[in-house]
Design brief:
The protein is mostly helical. It contains seven helices and two strands, in the order αααααββαα. It has helices spanning 2-9, 11-31, 37-48, 56-62, 67-79, 101-125, 127-148; strands at 83-87, 95-99. Helix 3 (37-48) crosses helix 6 and helix 6 crosses helix 7. It is globular and about 60 Å long. The mean pLDDT is 90.
Length: 149
């Protein structure tokens, strides 16, 4: 088909195909851990923050999600016993999120899983090409964001 050549050169089609190929597999694996990708990323983000000052609005910004979506993620992680909310001493309307012991164990396990995925990509592409791909994706995101204005 004539469109095949166009699609082979289309960044948006390549991103869509990659998403539809990779993310369902990642989520199937994470489902065995009783979480999804965003929940896993939130858990690891909380682990990486040394100062313990993780707030939902910052997570929404980092993961380019809505505060409402992050609120649902946090509620689910809290229900599963992975995180706890700590009410701010300065403002009772705000809170920070901390890992509980089970959440820390889960986050450490997830880091190993995410590292394994990265190792597969680096093995297939090479470390430099893997980084160039990541940089290229970020450039496409920036281009798309600039195009909205």
């Amino acid at each position: 088909m004539k469109i095949k050549k166009y699609l082979e050169q289309s960044p948006i089609f390549a991103i869509n195909t990659a998403y539809n190929t990779i993310i369902p597999k990642v989520n199937r694996r994470l489902n065995k851990e009783n979480i999804n990708l965003l929940q896993g990323l939130v858990l690891t983000a909380i682990l990486f923050e040394e100062n313990g000052e993780v707030v939902p609005s910052r997570l929404a910004e980092i993961f380019q999600s809505t505060r409402g979506n992050i609120s649902h993620v946090i509620s689910d992680l809290e229900y599963k016993g992975f995180v706890k909310r700590i009410v701010s001493s300065q403002d009772a309307r705000s809170f920070k999120i901390e890992l509980k012991a089970d959440g820390k164990r889960k986050a450490l396990l997830l880091i190993k899983f995410f590292d394994q995925i990265q190792e597969i990509f680096e093995k297939e592409l090479g470390v430099q090409n893997c980084q160039k791909t990541v940089n290229g994706i970020h450039s496409l995101i920036a281009a798309a964001s600039n195009n909205e204005k």
